[in-house]
Specification:
Blueprint: E1 3-8, E2 14-21, E3 30-35, H1 38-50, H2 82-91, H3 98-111, H4 113-116, H5 126-137, H6 142-149
Helix pairs in contact: 2-3
GO molecular function: DNA binding
Keywords: DNA-binding
Organism: Nonomuraea zeae
Length: about 150
């Protein structure tokens, strides 16, 4: 359960510290957020409780209990991006020599990752891949590179 501690600075300014144990466990690590308004602190504490004693999505550390306007609720923080997934895929390809794996990864770093390596896996769609292939086919060495990275 999140608790609120009222604090007063030397100059008389008040702030409220919302503290909770991550996941609610007795031996869990403690997390906190400082708020400068009592109502904001109350609202943030209830959000922490509703989130299972975890920091609510959209409220990064240092947010002062105010939701981040750049927060995207469709973004899954546990979803790896394409570059991480592809790097793991190239590193574990069966039947490829270490030299081939290094070549595959180098070509992907040069031609694939700048285009959509930053995207989460659930946002790499057929349309994204089709646009990339069309962009690649305009290059003179497209057939060789496509055979490496696909």
């Amino acid at each position: 359960m999140a608790r609120i501690i009222e604090r007063t600075a030397k100059n008389g300014a008040k702030s409220w510290l919302v503290k909770w144990r991550i996941g609610g466990g007795r031996n869990s690590k403690e997390d906190f957020e400082t708020c400068y308004d009592r109502q904001v602190a109350d609202d943030f504490a209830s959000l922490v409780t509703l989130s299972g004693e975890n920091r609510p999505h959209g409220y990064p550390k240092g947010c002062r209990g105010i939701e981040d306007p750049n927060y995207d609720p469709t973004h899954d923080p546990d979803m790896p991006n394409f570059e991480h997934y592809a790097g793991h895929n190239y590193a574990t390809r069966l039947g490829a020599s270490p030299t081939q794996r290094a070549t595959y990864l180098a070509e992907a770093e040069r031609h694939v990752f700048p285009r959509f390596g930053h995207l989460p896996l659930n946002q790499v769609t057929r349309r994204v891949l089709r646009e990339w292939v069309e962009w690649m086919l305009a290059k003179p060495c497209a057939a060789r590179i496509l055979s490496y990275v696909v």
